[in-house]
Amino acid sequence: MHHSLKNRLNELRRNLYSVVPAWPAFYFRHIYKSSPLRLSGRLFQFSKKLQHQVNFIQIGANDGINNDPLYKFIIAFHWRGLRLEPQQFVFEKLKKLHQNTIGITPLQCAIGPENGKATMYKVAFSNKRWAHGLTTFNRETLLHELEKELKIGQGKIKGERVPADKNAWIETIEVEQRTYTDILAQASFGRYDLLAIDAEGYDYELLKIAFEADVLPRAVLFEHINFDEETAELCANLLADKGYSVQQYGANSFAERL
To answer: Fewest 10 Å CB contacts: which of 62, 81, 89, 255?
Structure first.
């Protein structure tokens, strides 16, 4: 019941924001406060440094609002950018959210080393926000997350019953894949300030692909929580080699070029 009510409230909030964006913009610009020790505070400092004129690319935008670190800045300070989400039914929510947002282009695709099709892995027994937020290129990461959540929930995940057969937990989907070069050609801005990645354990791979394509934004925001020790070290070394200073904020890391 609790999760059902929360989902309905989230849907109501998303619909309201898409139709009447002025009041959340006022709230985030004039009332909302965040400590500089939190990710939102660091993003505010970054935005202020650029006089709030930030151009970004976000990979794995999902529905664009729930648990999203960029949304408040898009609404309050009119950040411009491309928001990528490969899942069809989630992308429709993202597109509806931004139907009246100037400067935001939703794209239904994933990022990869070449244009074409790619296979992703998603939760098979639920289409709720917690489930489609776990969709990833890495099957093992998804399986590990489900096993962890199942243990916490004592047989349920977020209030939902889980099939006894593990083969029924995960399904594959085919999505459109595009290169950084391809999507940047579609951008309406010349300066490129922030790359934000939320790829459920695949963030390091997408960083590598970006740097190999000479995509070097002023800052990178990514999720490190699913990295093993080796991947964490490789990612730290890669960012250091490219001149980035990294700070962790909970499950996320923010890296800015020195």
So the answer is: 89
Say what the pLDDT of residue 1 is: 45
| Angle of helix 88-97 versus helix 2-19 axis, rounded to 10 | 50
Task: Provide the token pair at 187.
Answer: 């951008």
Amino acid in the structure at residue 99: Q
pLDDT band with cut points at 50, 70 and 90 for residue 12? low
Cα separation, 20 vs 187, in Å, equals 26
Domains recognised in the chain with CATH numbers: 2-112+177-257 (3.40.50.150), 118-173 (no CATH)
> In this structure, which amino acid lies at residue 183?
I
E strands present in the chain: 55-59, 80-84, 104-107, 110-111, 116-123, 156-157, 160-161, 170-178, 194-197, 219-223, 244-249, 252-257
Distance from the Cα of residue 122 to its chain's centroid: 15
**Hunting for tokens 């609790």 — which residue is that?**
2
- In which region does residue 69 sit, left (phi positive, over 0), alpha (psi from -120 to 50) or beta (all else)? alpha
Lowest-pLDDT choice from 3-7, 57-61, 104-108, 111-115: 3-7
Task: Supply the pLDDT for residue 187.
Answer: 81
* pLDDT given for residue 30 in this prediction: 75
Select from 171, 77, 78 the least CA-distant residue to 127.
171
Is the pLDDT higher at 54 or at 1? 54
Supply the angle between the helices 229-241 and 203-212 in degrees, to the nearest 10. 30
Residue pair 71/64 in contact (Cβ under 8 Å)? The answer is: yes
Q: What is the pLDDT of residue 62?
A: 96
Position 175, amino acid: V
